[in-house]
């Protein structure tokens, strides 16, 4: 079966991918002349440009997640297949974001950690599939929106971690974004995400038990989403464990080794 290339020409996908690459190129040139970023300008540029798409997705998630229940009938089939107008932006925006993020994660020195590459690869595949099918619109505001709330402060955490001299100059800001990141990541990704995922699996299994024709026609795609969902949930717990350890060190005033945190 031929690969469907239409998701890559979606307006949101092309806008975000092109905007991120263009902004990254401009900031890399500018940062190469700025003291704290010299020699690692591309790394700094990556962290800065990622703030915009994460903020956009977070806002859209907050706007549309609460309205999802009002727009979609309260049954598994509707939650898995109903096309919700307000959800059209999520998957293609994430696809454009992940095209940029995976590319830079692989190519920019200091970013190519195996767990990060695995995470971005899975997220790109999910975004591609959900852009091409428009399935799971009910769930997109959460998975592609609410989940990214913690990614906004994470951009600054990563920036300061990569540039410890800059972090020391703005120590109060550095500490504030670290607290904001932990305060959003742990409840949203380590607690709420598995809780929401339980209800997704409940819907999926209900339709599977009923041998729903539409589900069975796309069974491979849905079970792949489920497998990726489990992988990402487990990965969040792994990262959550590391964040808790870092928070305990932070509470003791221990700032040693922050540049080596994962």
TrEMBL record:
A cellular component annotation (GO) from this entry: membrane
Q: How does it sit in the membrane?
A: Multi-pass membrane protein
> Where would you find this protein in the cell?
Membrane
Q: Which GO terms describe its biological process?
A: lipid homeostasis
Membrane-crossing segments per the record: 15-34, 41-60, 142-164, 176-201, 221-241
Domain TLC, chain residue ranges per copy: 99-244
- Major location (coarse): membrane
Signal sequence extent? none
Keywords associated with the record: Membrane, Transmembrane, Transmembrane helix
What domain of life does the native source organism fall in? Answer: Eukaryota
In its keyword annotation, does this UniProt entry include Transmembrane helix?
yes
Q: Does the keyword Membrane apply?
A: yes
Q: Name one Pfam family in it.
A: TRAM_LAG1_CLN8
User: Known PANTHER family for this protein?
Assistant: CT120 PROTEIN (PTHR13439)
Q: What is this protein called?
A: TLC domain-containing protein
């Amino acid at each position: 079966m031929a690969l469907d290339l239409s998701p890559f020409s979606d307006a949101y996908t092309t806008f975000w991918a092109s905007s991120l690459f263009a902004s990254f190129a401009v900031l890399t040139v500018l940062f190469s002349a700025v003291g704290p970023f010299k020699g690692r300008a591309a790394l700094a540029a990556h962290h800065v440009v990622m703030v915009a798409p994460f903020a956009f997705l977070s806002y859209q998630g907050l706007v549309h997640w609460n309205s999802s229940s009002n727009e979609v009938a309260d049954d598994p089939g509707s939650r898995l297949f109903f096309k919700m107008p307000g959800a059209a932006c999520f998957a293609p925006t994430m696809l454009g974001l992940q095209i940029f993020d995976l590319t830079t994660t692989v190519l920019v020195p200091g970013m190519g950690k195996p767990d990060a590459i695995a995470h971005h690869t899975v997220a790109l595949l999910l975004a591609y599939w959900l852009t091409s099918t428009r399935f799971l619109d009910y769930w997109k505001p959460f998975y592609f929106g609410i989940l990214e709330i913690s990614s906004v402060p994470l951009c600054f955490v990563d920036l300061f971690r990569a540039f410890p001299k800059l972090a020391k100059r703005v120590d109060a800001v550095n500490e504030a974004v670290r607290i904001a990141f932990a305060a959003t990541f742990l409840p949203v990704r380590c607690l709420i995400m598995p809780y929401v995922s339980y209800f997704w699996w409940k819907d999926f299994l209900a339709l599977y038990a009923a041998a729903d024709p539409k589900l069975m026609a796309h069974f491979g795609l849905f079970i792949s989403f489920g497998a990726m969902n489990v992988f990402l949930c487990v990965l969040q717990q792994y990262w959550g464990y590391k964040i808790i350890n870092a928070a305990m060190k932070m509470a003791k005033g221990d700032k040693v080794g922050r540049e080596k945190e994962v």
